[in-house]
UniProtKB/TrEMBL annotation:
Species of provenance: Alterirhizorhabdus solaris
Alphabetized UniProt keyword annotations: NADP, Oxidoreductase
Gene Ontology MF: a single term: dTDP-4-dehydrorhamnose reductase activity
Family: Belongs to the dTDP-4-dehydrorhamnose reductase family.
Domain RmlD-like substrate binding: start-end pairs: 3-289
Pathway this chain belongs to: Carbohydrate biosynthesis; dTDP-L-rhamnose biosynthesis
Pfam (any one): RmlD_sub_bind
Keyword NADP: yes
Record's protein name: dTDP-4-dehydrorhamnose reductase
Gene giving rise to this polypeptide: rfbD
Amino acid sequence: MTAVLVLGGNGQLGQALGRARWSEGTVVHRPGRDVIDLARPESIATALAAHPYDIVVNAAAFTAVDAAQDDVAGAFAINATGPAILADATRRAGLPLIHVSTDYVFDGSATGAYPEDATPQPLGVYGASKLAGEYAVLSGNPRAIVLRTAWVISPFRANFLKTMLRLAAERPALRVVDDQRGSPTSADDLAEAIAAIVPRLAGDADAPTGIYHFVNAGEASWCELAREIMACSASRGGPSVPVEGIPTSAFPTPTRRPVNSRLATGRLTRDYGIEPRDWQAAVRDIVADPAAMPTAPA
Ligand SMILES: NC(=O)C1=CN([C@@H]2O[C@H](COP(=O)(O)OP(=O)(O)OC[C@H]3O[C@@H](n4cnc5c(N)ncnc54)[C@H](OP(=O)(O)O)[C@@H]3O)[C@@H](O)[C@H]2O)C=CC1
Ligand SMILES: Cc1cn([C@H]2C[C@H](O)[C@@H](COP(=O)(O)OP(=O)(O)O[C@H]3O[C@@H](C)C(=O)[C@@H](O)[C@H]3O)O2)c(=O)[nH]c1=O
């Protein structure tokens, strides 16, 4: 049996991990923030001592990109200090750790997709706090994987896909930035990738570790992603309105986002045999889930 402890079990990724296809004999525990709070270090040690886990997945984070600009201490406590303590606690317990991170560690100046070993240079507090968490995890536990992902969408919680469907039900048209490009990613596909990594990382002390990327294949601007969401929704009789492409300057936000945060996934394919599917197929599946629709209960 493989016992997996998931932090952030009620978030987008956490809920997707709850319905992923785990290998036979895997048991997944997803306690909420009331049980493990990254801002309360003692809760980490207590949870690890409560059950003989084989591996830990950290899907918990301070993910409010703009709010992080005004709450630097809060973002660093949850995205950097908490993961540092978690890395130390898992190393002392002899456990491997998968820690999820973000494309926003990059500044967007690269011309192509960012390889795993590209030099990070975050533009905002969220990205800087996540980068500090990456360093802490990699230096704190030699059996750790930092798994960067990007533009996560799902039927769960708040995310760009659900925002677009909600706004389409309320407005005659959407205005969405067309000059920021990235890698849309299904939380379910990311969860399946984690479920595929876990047996090897938990069962083999020499399994490959370090920085990996998982995103769906292909690339898009936020505007192209919004148009695909509208097309899929229209084909199912859901809300759909025209999407006007606008420059970033026409949609000011407190935090600068990278103009290019595409991630290359070659290392994950090479070391773990994981081949992401196209992001358009992932969008189709999410829109087909009734829970993604604005009329669904929250
Ligand atoms: N969303 C995205 O577009 C992207 C996300 N990521 C990364 O992926 C990972 C998963 O993100 P996602 O599922 O989208 O995030 P969500 O915002 O959907 O969920 C975050 C989870 O973290 C929990 N959490 C917040 N603070 C704490 C804390 N102090 N202690 C314990 N748990 C806490 C939340 O708890 P509660 O349920 O109580 O709110 C929630 O369950 C994160 O590492 C994020 O940085 C990377 C790239 C893109
Ligand atoms: C709602 C809306 C957003 N936008 C723009 C603003 C921004 O540039 C872009 C995305 O907006 P959001 O605020 O939804 O997404 P944002 O919070 O930037 O999403 C990020 O979240 C964190 C957690 C990550 O790690 C990143 O990978 C990324 O997914 O779309 C529009 O142009 N029109 C709109 O109507």
